[in-house]
Structures
1.
Amino acid sequence: MPWLQLHIPSTADHAEAVEDMLLALGASAVTLADGADQPLFEPPPGATPLWRETIVSALFEADADGEAIIKALNEHLDPPPADYRFEQVADQAWERAWMDDFKPMPFGERLWIVPSWAEAPDAGAVNLKLDPGLAFGTGTHETTALCLNWLDGADLAGKSVLDFGCGSGVLAIAALLLGAEYAVATDIDPQALLATRENARLNGVGDRLTCFLPEDMPAAHFDVVLANILAGPLVELAPQLINHCRPGGRIVLSGILAEQAGNVVAAYQPQVELNPVAVRGDWTRVDGTRKA
């Protein structure tokens, strides 16, 4: 069945109120999108920032009364919408649409990321079956790819690994499939830990992976510390992440824009012997060996 979609320009201060009202008026789904190409690079942990100019889009059944919806918005919102646009949207298998764009991807010489519903192109490769589910992290983003390529080229046999900010668990699981002995994954989002556990089970490494919220993390040291988050938190958390890496261990950091790499290097260089910064598109990876 077709759908009626309503787009309303709003602001960071009012977008959530518009969203709540649209849902109360019967919208089947509401999405928020950037209205002015404003990047959001550095949200603090736990924050959900919005763009200064935000487009709120609501999906209604095709026979919804558009005039009645606008009338209700004008009556109950302060300020009322200054502008809006309706459009007809053809029906499709929404739950499949994103899956069609997620294809098997190679990283380095050994590793493939393969959607859980797809056949592995190379049955003899190290194939990581992944269902992103409730959390991001499929390998498609340049920051994740930078970390996966590092893992593919590393000797991980018998190593312990920390995946800090694990998302879907893709880095920890890749490390285990590539020979690591055990891994710990942590994230501030409980949904991410659920997705990580399920992806570990799907790949047969659930018994070698333990998940924690950051406040529950044990005071442990690891052979490899991976953190694919953002430059600001990486700088802020430098003492903690360095402490989790044993002397002589490896630390791998990503989620860093090229212009931010210098700040991250400065935060880690006193205690980590760093390699040249790796670059992929607009993003970088900082990695090295913790000094004794």
2.
Amino acid sequence: MWLASGFYQVQTNEQGVVLRFGKYVDTTEPGLHYHLPYPIETVEKVSMTQERSINLGVAESSRVSNVSRAFTESHMLTGDENIVDINLTVVWRIKNAKDYLFSMRSPDQTVSVAAQSVLREIVGQSKMMPIISGDRGKVEEDTKLELQKVLDDFGSGVEIVRVKLQKADPPKQVVDAFNEVQRAKADMERFKNEAEAYRNEVVPNARGQASQILQGAEAYKEAVVNKAKGEAERFNSVYQAYKKGREVTAKRLYLETMENVLKNSDKVILDPSAKGNGVVPLLPLNSLK
């Protein structure tokens, strides 16, 4: 009977750790096994699929004796020098039974201290607003990866399943002031958007008006330049004609000038030297009445 007491069964969700006089000997997988009867050898059966959890920032009677410790634990300093009140849940399970039993004296406390240290480091490198109202998934993922690395360095035999931020708020003592700041930032953003909309409306109109003025100026410049060129060409043509026949050209210019001067006049000028012109003087009797 004593020898038969060495048979033992390891369930599908367990690993068996065989100890000989308290010293590790072997790890057995699920199935029927045999070890030397007690007190020579003993077996520790460890559940490999059971998920365990710890909560940071929550006063639990099992591990926190007073509220003040939880209050201190939950408040962390962010990278932009603000304080944030965080509650974090870490879910973990055993991945190596030997390391779990022999590398840590108090696994729950070790995971809790490591998680708090890693979380403070991650929060200390982040700004407050993404933690409170932004994408918390990045903080959770960064915490999980860094915590797993720390526990692996410890040889803890623990696997972090997931990390969840249950709460991330400003401290109660300053929540009113924080809300005021957020409202002020919202107002600033609203004013900025309104100014941007006004700018988007005014600037295109101003650019359109400026373009219209420039086009008008270009058209005026073209008209003046073309007119000046035309007059210059006309002057050159007259000058060329003048060089060929000075008297004729001079007389023609004189007649054209006199025509321009007298074309709006109501007076008639007669050449007294001309005879037999058939002009009869008229006495305006009607205007003399």
